[in-house]
């Protein structure tokens, strides 16, 4: 064999080896997302977390040209859903629709199998919303002062509903009990929708529900709103006083909702999701829909959202300890 023939033969062998190696490695990774993405919600359908998830899922599907499917896994104040996502592959195809509840749960529950700061990769904040103090219209009160007076005259006879143990709807009630010096029974539900159903039916008397899920019932007259739980009034209900105006200057509770992925999810996937989320939140139609529910779109970077989650864990940790509330 001549030198040239040997050289050509060697080149072909190298090319063949390279081709075989490429074949064994499989095709190049398809651009994300190349299959449906699951958005796991820790509450039953109809509540604010579920509503926010469905609004953003539809827009993410349009932007990224792939299906984004909302999956409800209620239980343990959203902890079951959070743990499910933590155990999922960190590939961007299983996301958790996180809420302020998870920041509260970090202190409220003593034996969690995950840490929301360490075990999740933040994608971005979606919306913020005040809670609203609503009562069944049969309750003979029309403002916060009358509610406090009624509670003091009827100790232990009022029951307040929440979307689940540990959420802002629960802790707002505990904070109110603490600051007003009253006794009320906490009745947790698996989401805002069943809590509102029982409140309207009179099985419980009041709730500090998220504005997006409660406001529709206020507008139809099924519930009576007494105050928003933030220090300032809500632009969605400018005539409704705040808790601060109602005699509780240090009362300031709001809800927030966002997206996180399991820790270890590739950075480029997180960045692509964040860009799509922020693009959706900038759409006038999306902003108008959230505004109508009493919520405000709140785009962030993943880093900003991560810092926000960490600060919320610290803030709510202090409230949980002060209230003495616990959950198992």
UniProtKB/TrEMBL annotation:
Fetch the SUPFAM superfamilies from UniProt: Periplasmic binding protein-like II (SSF53850)
InterPro entries found in the cross-reference section: BUG, Bug_dom1
The UniProt keywords, alphabetically, are: Signal
Statement: the UniProt record of this protein carries the keyword Signal: yes
What PANTHER family does the record point to?
A: BLR1237 PROTEIN (PTHR42928:SF5), TRICARBOXYLATE-BINDING PROTEIN (PTHR42928)
Q: Which family does it belong to?
A: Belongs to the UPF0065 (bug) family.
Protein's name in the database: Tripartite tricarboxylate transporter substrate binding protein
């Amino acid at each position: 064999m001549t030198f040239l023939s040997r050289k050509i033969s060697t080149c072909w062998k190298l090319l063949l080896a390279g081709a075989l190696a490429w074949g064994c490695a499989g095709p190049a990774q398809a651009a994300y997302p190349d299959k449906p993405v699951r958005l796991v919600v820790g509450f039953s359908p109809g509540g604010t977390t579920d509503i926010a998830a469905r609004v953003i899922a539809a827009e993410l599907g349009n932007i990224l040209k792939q299906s984004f499917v909302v999956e409800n896994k209620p239980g343990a104040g959203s902890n079951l859903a959070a743990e499910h996502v933590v155990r999922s592959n960190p590939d961007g195809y299983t996301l958790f629709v996180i809420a302020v509840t998870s920041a509260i749960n970090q202190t409220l529950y003593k034996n969690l199998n995950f840490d929301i700061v360490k075990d999740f990769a933040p994608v971005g904040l979606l919306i913020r919303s005040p809670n609203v103090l609503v009562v069944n219209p049969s309750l003979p009160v029309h403002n916060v002062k009358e509610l406090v007076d009624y509670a003091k005259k009827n100790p232990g006879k009022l029951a307040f509903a929440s979307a689940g143990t540990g959420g802002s709807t629960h802790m707002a009630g505990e904070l109110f009990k603490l600051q007003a010096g009253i006794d009320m029974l906490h009745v947790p539900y698996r989401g805002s929708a069943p809590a509102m159903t029982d409140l309207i039916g009179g099985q419980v008397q009041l709730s500090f529900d998220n504005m997006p899920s409660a406001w529709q019932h206020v507008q139809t007259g099924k519930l009576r709103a007494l105050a928003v739980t933030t220090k300032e009034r809500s632009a969605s209900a400018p005539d409704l006083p705040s808790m601060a105006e109602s005699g509780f200057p240090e009362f300031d509770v709001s809800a927030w909702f966002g997206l996180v992925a399991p820790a270890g999810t590739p950075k480029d996937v997180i960045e692509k999701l964040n860009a799509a989320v922020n693009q959706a939140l900038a759409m006038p139609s999306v902003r108008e829909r959230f505004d109508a529910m009493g919520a405000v779109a709140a785009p962030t970077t993943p880093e900003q959202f991560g810092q926000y989650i960490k600060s919320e864990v610290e803030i709510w940790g202090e409230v949980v300890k002060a209230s003495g509330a616990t959950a198992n």
